[in-house]
Design brief:
elongated; five-stranded mixed beta sheet; alpha/beta; Beta-Lactamase; Udp-n-acetylmuramoylalanyl-d-glutamate--2,6- Diaminopimelate Ligase, Chain: A, domain 1
C-alpha cells in the first residue's frame, strides 16, 4: 500500500509543519510507501526507495557543498520519493546546493517551516499505509471469494463483471481482442459502452492460452473509495476469473448436461415419446409435481454460460425443478411453477427478469411461453418451449438498458411473454411469408409503400400507436417524439389510408395488418 505524495502533504499533521514544495511540483503524484526520519549523512544506501525522508539537516551541517549535492543525488538515485528538511534548527533557509541538485534530478524537495515532531508525522502516515495494506488484503480476499462463488455458480463472463462491479460500485466492460462487446455491467447502452472504453480509469488484459483474448475496462467513476493500486488488484483478479470462465466455457459437457440437451432437442423436434420423456426427465432430476405448471423459457445471450445461469436461477427463484440446456441453437428450459401461484406465466416473467439482472449479462433477451399443467406431460410442454423461442424472434432489437432493470418508455423490456405476442404467434402458425405480406398490403399497403419510398417508419408508428391504446401521450413517449411530430405522422398515415385509424371497428384489423407486416420480414 502506498500514499501519493500530494495526499500526504494534505494531511493535517503535515500541514501543521507548513510544507513548501521548492522543487518537483510536477512529481507530487509519486507513491510514498514509508516515512522515515534520519540525521545520518550516509543514509542513502540504507533506503530501499519510495520513502519520504524527514531531516533537520544536522548530518549536512558539517559537510561541504559537494557532499550535500552528493547526498541529495544519492537519494534521487535510490528512488526516494521526496526529501523534507525542517528549517530553523540547522539551516534558516534551504541550502541552494540542495535546490540545484534537486532541480537537476526533478526530485521533490520540501521545506518544513514549522516544528512538528517527526515521530508524529511518521506514526500518522505509516499507520495509514499499514492500515491500507490490511484493507487491500481484505479487499483481495473479498473479491476472490465473491468471484469464486460466481464461477462455481456458472455465472459466466457477464456474471463475473456484475460481481466485481457491485464490489467496486462502478461500471465494467469486457471487449474482445477483435473489438466486440463481450459483457458489461452498470452501463446504459452501446454508446455508453464505448464512451467508458475511451475514458476508462484503468484496464487489464484478459489472457487465454497465453494470448490476449480481450480487455477489461473499469469506468472513470468506479472505486471512488479505492486507491489506484486497490482498484488495480480488483481488476487483475477479475481478469483472471474471466479467463477461467472463458476456458471453462470450452469444457466438455457432463453426462447429465448431454442428456438434458438431448431430451430438450427431442421435445422440440417432436420425436419424444411421453413415457420415455418422463423417465429421461426423472433420471436428470426433473420431477415436477402433477399439479404444477410447466412454462417454457428461451434465453438469448452472447455468453451461453450466462444464459444457462439465468435459466437455472429463474427455476431456483420459483422454488421448483428446471430442465435447462441447449437446443435449436438457443439456451432453453422448462421450469416448474408451484400450483399455488395464481399467474404462473407472470411468476416466470418476474423470476426471469430478476435472474437476468443478477447475471449482469448485456442485452439478454428472454422469451416466456404459456403454462401447461405438468400432469398433461412433457410433450405438451414442448409447445410452450416453441412459443418461448418464437417470442425471441419477435422481441425488437432495442431492449432494456445493459446491466439495469429500469425501463424507458421507448425501449422494449428484455423479458417478454407469449401472451404479449399472441396475435403474432397465431399469424406465424397460420401463414407463410407470402400470406402475411398479402394480408398487410390489403390493409395498409399505401403506408408500406410510403415507408419504402421515403425511408420513414410510419408502419412502426402506427403499431406503437395502436398498442398504446391510441394514446398520443404514451405513443409520443414510446417513440421519443414531440406530440406535434406524432400528430403529423398520424395525419400522414390517415391521408394515405383515406380513413381515421382510431375507430373502434378498425383497431383489430389494423393491428393484425401491422403485425403481419413485421412478421413477413421474419419468416
Amino acid at each position: 500500500m502506498t500514499v501519493q505524495l500530494s495526499a500526504l502533504l494534505d494531511l493535517e499533521v503535515v500541514r501543521n509543519a507548513k510544507p513548501e514544495v521548492l522543487v518537483g511540483h510536477g512529481r507530487l503524484e509519486r507513491p510514498v510507501r514509508w516515512v522515515h526520519s534520519s540525521e545520518i549523512f550516509e543514509i542513502g544506501p540504507l533506503l530501499a526507495g519510495g520513502e519520504l525522508l524527514l531531516t533537520t539537516g544536522l548530518g549536512l551541517a558539517g559537510v561541504d557543498i559537494g557532499a550535500r549535492r552528493h547526498y541529495l543525488r544519492e537519494l534521487a538515485e535510490r528512488g526516494v520519493a521526496a526529501l523534507a528538511v525542517e528549517l530553523g534548527r540547522t539551516f534558516r533557509d534551504m541550502p541552494p546546493e540542495l535546490v540545484l541538485e534537486a532541480q537537476a534530478h526533478d526530485f521533490p524537495l520540501i521545506a518544513l517551516h514549522s516544528v512538528v515532531p517527526f515521530i508524529r508525522i511518521s506514526e500518522t502516515v505509516n499507520t495509514l499505509i499499514v492500515n491500507g495494506s490490511v484493507r487491500r488484503l481484505q479487499l483481495g480476499e473479498d473479491i476472490t471469494r465473491a468471484l469464486n462463488d460466481s464461477l462455481i455458480g456458472g455465472a459466466g463472463v457477464a456474471g463475473l463483471l456484475g460481481t466485481a462491479g457491485r464490489l467496486i460500485d462502478g461500471p465494467l466492460v469486457a471487449i474482445s481482442a477483435g473489438g466486440a462487446l463481450i459483457a458489461a455491467h452498470g452501463v446504459g447502452d452501446h454508446r455508453d459502452v464505448w464512451a467508458l472504453v475511451e475514458s476508462a480509469r484503468m484496464s487489464a488484459p484478459i489472457t487465454v492460452h497465453g494470448g490476449t483474448w480481450g480487455t477489461l475496462y473499469v469506468g472513470a467513476g468506479a472505486g471512488r473509495n479505492l486507491a489506484d493500486d486497490e482498484l488495480e488488484a480488483v481488476l487483475e483478479r477479475t481478469s483472471v476469473a474471466v479467463s477461467l470462465a472463458v476456458l471453462g466455457g470450452g469444457r466438455a459437457a457432463s453426462h447429465r448436461e448431454s442428456q438434458v440437451d438431448a431430451l430438450l432437442g427431442d421435445l422440440l423436434r417432436g420425436t419424444a415419446v411421453e413415457i420415455q420423456a418422463t423417465l429421461r426427465a426423472g433420471l436428470v432430476g426433473f420431477n415436477p409435481r402433477p399439479q404444477d405448471r410447466l412454462v417454457g423459457v428461451a434465453v438469448e445471450s452472447a455468453d451461453p454460460r450466462a444464459a444457462i445461469a439465468v435459466l437455472e436461477r429463474c427455476a431456483a427463484l420459483l422454488g421448483g425443478p428446471g430442465l435447462c440446456g441447449h437446443a435449436q441453437g438457443h439456451s432453453v428450459g422448462l421450469v416448474s411453477v408451484p400450483a399455488a401461484r395464481i399467474d404462473p406465466v407472470e411468476s416466470v416473467r418476474v423470476a426471469a427478469d430478476e435472474a437476468r439482472l443478477a447475471s449482469g449479462a448485456p442485452e439478454v433477451r428472454i422469451g416466456v411461453g404459456h403454462a401447461v399443467v405438468a400432469d398433461h406431460g412433457l410433450v405438451r410442454g414442448a409447445a410452450s418451449l416453441w412459443d418461448a423461442l418464437l417470442v425471441l424472434r419477435l422481441i425488437p432489437g432495442t431492449v432494456t438498458a445493459i446491466g439495469t432493470g429500469t425501463g424507458n418508455p421507448g425501449r422494449v423490456p428484455a423479458v417478454m411473454t407469449s401472451r404479449t405476442y399472441s396475435l403474432e404467434l397465431e399469424l406465424l402458425r397460420r401463414a407463410d411469408a407470402t400470406g402475411l405480406d398479402e394480408l398487410a398490403k390489403r390493409m395498409i399497403g399505401p403506408v408500406i409503400a410510403w415507408d419504402a419510398d421515403h425511408g420513414s417508419k410510419l408502419v412502426h408508428t402506427l403499431e406503437v400507436f395502436l398498442r398504446n391504446g391510441c394514446s398520443p401521450t404514451r405513443t409520443a413517449a414510446a417513440l421519443h417524439l414531440g406530440r406535434q411530430s406524432l400528430y403529423q405522422r398520424i395525419e400522414r398515415i390517415e391521408a394515405l389510408l383515406g380513413h381515421e385509424v382510431n375507430g373502434p371497428d378498425l383497431l383489430p384489423a389494423l393491428l393484425l395488418a401491422v403485425c403481419a407486416q413485421r412478421l413477413s420480414t421474419l419468416t
